[in-house]
């Protein structure tokens, strides 16, 4: 535009680039030719160079003012792009240049070695070589190319060797400026600047100068905008300071030619146009800055100049890590949030009032103690709740009344701070927009033509660019406007996001100040004071630009983290693989290690056996000595007796290793009011690049192999070493951890007690998700510093920046997965005002949109039900039920497979008075799955749907041999024995938290399926949602179906392990070695509709920590009322009502009516009836027997029904020879003249059905008809409704076969097992829901294994044990196994089931070893529980057999044993047991839905004391 005062960068003559002109890193000589327009302090002024404006060139683009950032638009030292050097043709002096800085090339962040595009299988080699460059990208810069900005110069190393520079650097550490601030450690002689443009903006009369800065040969580039008054203020401060202190020599004079006052020009007979004056003004100001730098660059007074250029020590320090700084300067910050505040908790009131140096970076605001220090005051993270609030200026409302003709009113203006991004103008012509804006400018009314803000008139100096104001450029100030080309200045909006509390306040000076604004995020609200309004606008503009950060956008599932594409991720099953990979990554650490765990054991061996150098504490100590900073967050238990993790010992042990290891524990229980909830996430991030997360803590008891062996008994002096040394050999079902400060000491006698295997799933990931996890860790770490006092100073941490586009691709660290980090976090755990439950949202949406198959492994399954009148609010169960109903109506094949532990990992037998945790969790899971009107089975049966066709629940068990060939397994409790045992079996404890949907999507994390983990306001959790874009051919229900490689391979790997396939010998894909299918820009993210049914949980949860604690207390009180009412005494409830803690309605709702309602189910007509759905729906084992699965072609033997059909009536007597005690039971008196159903001719030759001493059949379901002694009809004793289908009517016949098998003699050919052993094809896992695999292999194997464990060990829980009486007689079998064989001369036992009190000779746990759960707190101190008996149960078929109150059930059981019931086995029987165990297919067993069902329906399963405990602890 002719006549425009806006001039572009100077056009210097460009010479042809030569290779011998490539400079080294050094000081610029004074004879440097300014080919790129930059000038250095050591450069002599060059005269005669004509500086032409670029405004006349067609390529001039005003968008550069606010779009172009020197750090973004050019390849450089911290940019992952490599561009070939540009060769420029020689040009004549005076020719105009179309683009500035031609020929500039900045070095790359990685070595310039050829990139090998062929990927190796694992990426560890690349990670090993690339992590140092990722962690310290400034350590080595590539040599600049021929067109680099720096010519030959003195190398910085030579400067240090010479001694001059090293002396100056040493002085920087000691010197202080006049404010007693440490000198900013910047080498200003390596700073290059240029004033490229000047602009007379529409919203003011003062010219704005664009100052481009370059430091360290292009390592850092940034832009600042300054007005003339800013230059004059800088000069004034130096002049006044120098007048008093005389600390700066040769201080330059302020250039008069830069002042827009033309009288002196006329005296000198100069006639300058506006264009020439603008060029002269920029040149003189640039020269002044260079002279000023030369004067102060080796003096502490340089701090003021650094502030002018927005340079700080942190700015220099963070340059190598990437990221972007948009604004730096001083602000005074006050927190308006109650609790926590801003800054350390120990900060004084006076310190909180001081102005401090702040910087707006790409996704946060950082505040430092001093600009010359790296110590961080605090960090304000920008998130989806980030907003800027502008206070009203009440005193200006009166001024506007004096000018009614302007027609402007702040109250009716549209929000002027709703800024439109510059990208909105991309589709229109830039010059066209300028002409339009310029036309509008010319047609403005008089008096408003300049569009100026009143506050701009209070500038120092003159009237600025008054002579050119008539031809102002149609642009706004880029430093105070997000969109300078919008043509409308950003005016303060009085009503924008106005806080309700502020509206109620009276007029205050602070509120009406034009220097004040507020910023809000999910954690806090801060009040900020700027020095003037222009600076305030600059801060606000910078913050508005940062709103484009992905963390500030609404993300899928309402998560804090965005979706990441082309991620390299690998699943890791079981502790061996997880700890091995983690140890390898720890050895690669160069900068930082972040660890967040529920429990951490410093002495944990990461690799085994005999690899002590890989012990966790030694690895961390080694890296700490290398200079790696290690930050650890541990859950702080309420008491070592409730949760024996001993976090204090772990903290003291780690911090004593090296000062570089810092540990925080959380929460502060009394401060946060949090006694029940825990930090449950497990994560480790190395150098902000490699991350590990999932269900595995770095602690004892977690390391395991796919074989899940339960014995680790090594002879002293033998060749083999212990795999699980010291405390790592554990069995929480028997006794929980204790004396952790003696990690090398065993807790049990390994020759007698097996360990409990641990099954878990985790993952590792490289790239952007690792930085998302870092951000979560930093947010938690900083929050703890605000609320906790520490004896040792802990630093605030900064979140890492985003990887630059293409950076990971260039380093070949990309993969094929789409991944997002989700979490459960709330007020107590993270200090947020809102509760995030994005993990639950991910589960709900994944289940809702599933097409065929959902596979879940979890430690608990408690969802969408009502337990003791307490509603379980998480909606995962609802989503499953609705998806099943939809699949049933659409006739679509769909299945849900759930894997949970046999029993919760808590101490004590089920019937022990201290086993409240076990009973409560079982109660909750029963109410979720199959018992009560809110259970999944009951709701499906109401719709006429057979639950077994759509949802099934499984568990895992294992067995082993102790010393002396003693067989051993684990049952249900925790008693330890002293006698030598031979056989042992144990549950494989499932601790994984995995959900795999359609073999396309996987959710892996630390969140259980219960209220604690899913709600967000209780336990804090982490999870990753992974969807593989690398689709491969698969099948579902016999039809072709595309599946994702990540999810499919994980599901197959898990199922193979559970069915006993040797997965270590199976070839598996190296998922992290696969190339990305498409570039990120070509991929479409999976963002499901949040408004669909079963979608996100949108209801806000904004409870404070105090309110959350109060809610927990009310839950406990409600439980107490139930207990007191059921016990026949309502004194406690009356007292609670009297003191006002509860209302009458709450107390009245508690009682028998409420509890009876939970013991009903729906019939097929949709009416409520007495009983449980679990008793009416046939079990998977019964269905397998009825359907005679697996067929011969898929089995090693024929089903028992087929065998019976081929056996003649006069079968060999050995097949029907019952044991003596069974005969006595069968020949007992029949009540009311009835027979037991075993005497008919058709029954001859068969073993009798197993019965209790009083004739009740084992496994008779609740409400068995007609009685529990004749279980021959579908259950309807109380309801009277018999609406059973054919399958339900045939179920009693299948149960009779199972009872006969239990009573059959070992070694019987016909009655070996009711279900034949299925054949398992290692390659037959591709289609999980076809009948050939699901029914004939998976379910049949589970039923087959369950029958073996029942026959050999009488494993608990079991579907054939439905009452306490059956339970007591069932575990008498354990006593027989504990005795030596009758024909054996040695005193060794046959087998051992050490976790049940039926195992005689048990010793009680050590008094120093608290009986607590392996994951959550147990019973708080209180009265001993008393078993509850119900009067109504006397006439029912499932009458209560609970021991008398106050009597230990195990003691009464011992007293009532018959002499024949505990006779020892013979040796041949023991051999038959081991032979049966050899037929197991892996570890898979059926989960028992009918265990103690008869007691539950009689309201006799929970003890009274159980109901007094707060249910939220366990659900």
TrEMBL record:
Its EC number is 3.1.4.4. It comes from the Eukaryota. Residues 478-489 have a biased composition (Polar residues). It catalyses: a 1,2-diacyl-sn-glycero-3-phosphocholine + H2O = a 1,2-diacyl-sn-glycero-3-phosphate + choline + H(+). Residues 65-86, 493-509, 1180-1204, 1217-1254, 1266-1281 have a biased composition (Basic and acidic residues). GO terms for biological process: intracellular signal transduction; phosphatidic acid biosynthetic process; phospholipid catabolic process. PROSITE patterns: PH_DOMAIN (PS50003), PLD (PS50035), PX (PS50195). Residues 501-548 form the PH domain. Residues 1-120, 403-509, 1168-1294, 1375-1467 are annotated as: Disordered. Residues 675-702, 986-1013 form the PLD phosphodiesterase domain. Keywords: Hydrolase, Lipid degradation, Lipid metabolism, Repeat. Transmembrane segments: none annotated. The keyword Membrane does not apply. InterPro entries: PH_domain, PLD-like_dom, PLipase_D/transphosphatidylase, PLipase_D_euk, PLipase_D_fam, PX_dom, PX_dom_sf. One of its GO terms (molecular function) is phosphatidylinositol binding. Residues 458-472 have a biased composition (Low complexity). Residues 187-322 form the PX domain. It holds the Pfam family PLDc. The keyword Cell membrane does not apply. It is an enzyme of class 3 (hydrolase). Belongs to the phospholipase D family. This is Phospholipase. It comes from Mycena rosella.
């Amino acid at each position: 535009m002719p006549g425009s005062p806006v001039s572009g960068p100077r056009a210097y003559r460009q010479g042809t680039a030569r290779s011998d002109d490539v400079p080294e890193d050094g000081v610029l000589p004074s004879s440097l030719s300014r080919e790129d327009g930059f000038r250095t302090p050591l450069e002599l002024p060059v005269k005669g160079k004509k500086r032409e404006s670029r405004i006349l060139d067609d390529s001039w683009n005003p968008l550069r003012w606010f779009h172009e950032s020197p750090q973004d638009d050019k390849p450089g030292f911290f940019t992952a792009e490599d561009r070939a050097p540009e060769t420029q043709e020689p040009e004549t002096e005076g020719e105009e240049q179309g683009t500035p800085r031609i020929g500039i090339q900045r070095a790359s962040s990685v070595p310039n070695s050829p990139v090998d595009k062929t990927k190796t299988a694992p990426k560890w080699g690349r990670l090993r070589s690339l992590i140092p460059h990722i962690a310290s990208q400034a350590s080595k810069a590539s040599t600049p190319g021929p067109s680099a900005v720096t010519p030959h110069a003195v190398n910085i190393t030579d400067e240090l060797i010479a001694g001059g520079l090293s002396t100056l650097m040493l002085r920087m550490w000691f010197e202080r400026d006049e404010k007693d601030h440490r000198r900013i450690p910047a080498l200003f002689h390596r700073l290059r600047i240029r004033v490229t443009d000047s602009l007379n903006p529409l919203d003011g009369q003062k010219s704005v100068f664009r100052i481009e800065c370059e430091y360290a040969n292009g390592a850092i580039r940034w832009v600042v905008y300054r007005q003339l008054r800013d230059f004059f203020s800088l000069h004034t401060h130096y002049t006044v300071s120098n007048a008093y202190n005389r600390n700066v020599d040769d201080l330059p004079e302020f250039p008069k030619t830069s002042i827009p006052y033309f009288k002196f020009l006329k005296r000198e007979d100069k006639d300058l146009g506006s264009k020439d004056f603008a060029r002269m003004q920029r040149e003189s100001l640039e020269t002044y800055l260079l002279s000023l730098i030369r004067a102060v660059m080796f003096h502490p007074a340089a701090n003021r100049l650094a502030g002018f250029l927005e340079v700080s020590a942190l700015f220099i320090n963070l340059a190598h890590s990437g990221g972007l700084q948009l604004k730096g300067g001083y602000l005074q910050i006050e927190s308006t949030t109650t609790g926590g505040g801003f800054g350390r908790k120990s900060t004084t009131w006076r310190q909180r009032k001081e102005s401090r140096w702040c910087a707006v970076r790409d996704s946060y605001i950082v505040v430092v103690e001093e600009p010359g220090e790296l110590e961080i005051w605090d960090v304000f993270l920008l998130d989806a709740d980030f907003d800027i609030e502008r206070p009203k200026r009440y005193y200006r409302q009166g001024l506007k009344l004096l000018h009614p003709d302007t027609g402007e009113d702040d109250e009716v203006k549209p929000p002027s701070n709703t800024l439109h991004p510059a990208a909105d103008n991309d589709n229109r012509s830039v010059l066209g927009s300028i002409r339009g804006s310029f036309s509008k400018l010319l047609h403005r009314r008089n008096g408003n033509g300049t569009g100026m803000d009143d506050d701009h008139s209070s500038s120092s100096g003159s009237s600025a660019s008054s002579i050119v104001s008539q031809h102002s450029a149609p642009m706004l100030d880029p430093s105070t406007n997000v969109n300078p080309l919008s043509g409308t200045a950003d005016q303060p909006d009085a009503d924008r996001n106005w806080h309700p509390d502020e509206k109620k306040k009276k007029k205050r000076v602070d509120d009406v100040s034009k220097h004040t604004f507020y910023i809000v995020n999910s954690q806090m609200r801060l009040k900020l004071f700027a020095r003037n309004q222009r600076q305030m606008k600059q801060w606000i503009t910078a913050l508005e630009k940062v709103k484009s950060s992905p963390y500030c956008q609404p993300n899928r599932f309402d998560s804090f983290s965005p979706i990441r594409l082309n991620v390299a991720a690998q699943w890791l099953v079981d502790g061996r693989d997880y700890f091995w990979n983690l140890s390898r990554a720890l050895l690669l650490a160069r900068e930082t290690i972040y660890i967040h765990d529920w429990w951490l054991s410093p002495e944990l061996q990461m690799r085994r056996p005999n690899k002590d150098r890989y012990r966790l504490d030694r690895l961390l100590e080694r890296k700490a000595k290398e200079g790696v900073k290690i930050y650890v967050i541990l859950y702080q238990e309420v008491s070592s007796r409730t949760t024996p993790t001993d976090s204090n010992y772990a903290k003291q042990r780690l911090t004593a290793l090296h000062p570089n290891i810092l540990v925080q524990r959380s929460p502060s229980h009394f401060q946060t009011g949090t006694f029940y909830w825990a930090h449950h996430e497990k994560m480790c991030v190395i150098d902000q690049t490699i991350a590990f997360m999932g269900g595995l803590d770095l602690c004892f008891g977690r390391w395991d192999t796919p074989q899940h062996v339960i014995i680790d008994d090594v002879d002293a002096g033998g060749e083999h070493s212990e795999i699980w040394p010291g405390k790592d050999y554990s069995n929480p079902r028997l006794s929980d951890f204790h004396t952790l400060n003696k990690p090398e000491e065993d807790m049990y006698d390994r020759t007698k007690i097996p360990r409990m295997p641990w099954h878990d799933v985790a993952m590792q990931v490289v790239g952007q998700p690792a930085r998302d996890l870092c951000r979560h860790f930093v947010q938690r770490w900083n929050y703890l510093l605000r609320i906790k006092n520490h004896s040792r100073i802990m630093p605030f941490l900064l979140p890492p920046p985003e990887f630059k586009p293409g950076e990971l691709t260039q380093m070949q660290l990309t993969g094929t997965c789409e991944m997002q980090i989700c979490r459960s976090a709330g007020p107590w755990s993270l200090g947020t005002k809102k509760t995030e439950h994005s993990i639950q949202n991910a589960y709900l949406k994944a289940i809702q949109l599933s097409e065929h198959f959902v596979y879940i492994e979890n430690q608990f399954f408690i969802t969408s039900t009502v337990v003791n009148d307490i509603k379980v609010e998480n909606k995962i169960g609802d989503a499953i039920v609705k998806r099943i109903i939809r699949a049933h109506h659409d006739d679509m094949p769909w299945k849900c497979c759930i894997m949970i532990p046999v029993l919760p990992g808590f101490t004590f037998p089920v019937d022990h008075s201290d086993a409240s945790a076990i009973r409560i969790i079982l109660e909750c899971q029963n109410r979720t799955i199959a018992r009560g009107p809110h259970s999944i089975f009951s709701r499906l049966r109401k719709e006429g749907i057979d639950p077994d066709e759509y949802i099934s629940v499984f568990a895992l068990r294992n067995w082993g041999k102790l010393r002396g060939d003693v067989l051993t397994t684990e049952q249900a409790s925790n008693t330890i024995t002293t006698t030598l045992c031979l056989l042992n079996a144990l549950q494989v404890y499932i601790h994984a938290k995995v959900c795999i949907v359609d073999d396309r999507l996987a959710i892996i994390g630390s969140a259980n399926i219960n209220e604690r983990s899913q709600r967000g306001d209780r336990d804090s959790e982490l999870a990753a949602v992974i969807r593989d874009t690398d689709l491969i051919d698969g099948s579902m229900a016999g039809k072709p179906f595309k599946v994702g490689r990540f999810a499919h391979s994980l599901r197959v790997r898990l199922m193979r392990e559970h069915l006993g396939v040797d997965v270590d010998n199976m070839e598996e894909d190296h998922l992290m070695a696969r190339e990305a299918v498409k570039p990120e820009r070509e991929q479409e993210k999976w963002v499901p509709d949040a408004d669909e049914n079963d979608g996100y949980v949108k209801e806000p949860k904004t409870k404070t920590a105090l309110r959350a604690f109060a809610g927990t207390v009310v839950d406990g009180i409600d439980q107490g009322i139930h207990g007191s009412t059921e016990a026949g005494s309502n004194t406690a409830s009356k007292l609670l009502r009297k003191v006002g803690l509860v209302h009458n309605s709450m107390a009245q709702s508690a009682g028998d009516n409420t509890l009876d309602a939970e013991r009903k189910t729906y019939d097929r007509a949709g009416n409520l009836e007495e009983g449980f759905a679990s008793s009416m729906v046939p079990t998977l084992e019964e269905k397998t027997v009825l359907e005679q699965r697996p067929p011969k072609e898929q089995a090693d033997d024929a089903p028992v029904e087929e065998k019976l059909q081929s056996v003649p009536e006069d079968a060999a007597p050995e097949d029907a020879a019952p044991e003596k005690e069974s005969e006595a039971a069968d020949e007992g008196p029949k009540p009311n003249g009835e027979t037991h159903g075993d005497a008919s001719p058709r029954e001859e030759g068969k073993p009798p059905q197993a019965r209790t001493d009083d004739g009740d059949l084992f496994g008779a379901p609740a409400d068995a008809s007609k009685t529990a002694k004749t279980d021959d009809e579908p259950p309807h004793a109380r309801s009277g409704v018999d609406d059973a289908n054919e399958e339900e009517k045939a179920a009693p016949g299948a149960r009779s076969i199972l009872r006969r098998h239990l009573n059959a003699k070992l070694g019987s050919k016909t009655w070996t097992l009711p279900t034949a052993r299925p054949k398992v094809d290692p390659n037959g896992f591709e289609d999980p829901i076809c009948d050939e695999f699901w029914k004939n292999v998976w379910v049949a194997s589970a039923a087959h294994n369950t029958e073996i464990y029942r026959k050999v060990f009488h494993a608990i829980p079991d579907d054939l044990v439905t009452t306490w009486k059956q339970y007591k007689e069932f575990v008498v079998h354990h006593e027989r196994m504990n005795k030596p064989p009758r024909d054996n001369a040695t005193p060794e036992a046959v087998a051992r089931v050490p976790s049940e009190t039926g195992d005689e000779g048990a010793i009680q746990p050590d008094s120093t070893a608290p009986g607590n759960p392996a994951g959550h707190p147990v019973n708080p101190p209180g009265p001993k529980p008393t078993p509850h008996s119900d009067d109504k149960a006397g006439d029912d078929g499932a009458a209560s057999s609970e021991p008398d109150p106050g009597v230990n059930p195990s003691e009464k059981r011992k007293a009532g044993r018959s002499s024949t019931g505990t006779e020892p086995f013979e040796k041949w029987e023991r051999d038959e047991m081991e032979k049966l165990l050899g037929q197991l297919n892996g570890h898979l067993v059926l989960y028992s839905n009918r265990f103690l069902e008869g007691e539950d329906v009689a309201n006799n399963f929970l003890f009274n004391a159980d109901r007094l405990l707060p249910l939220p602890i366990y659900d």
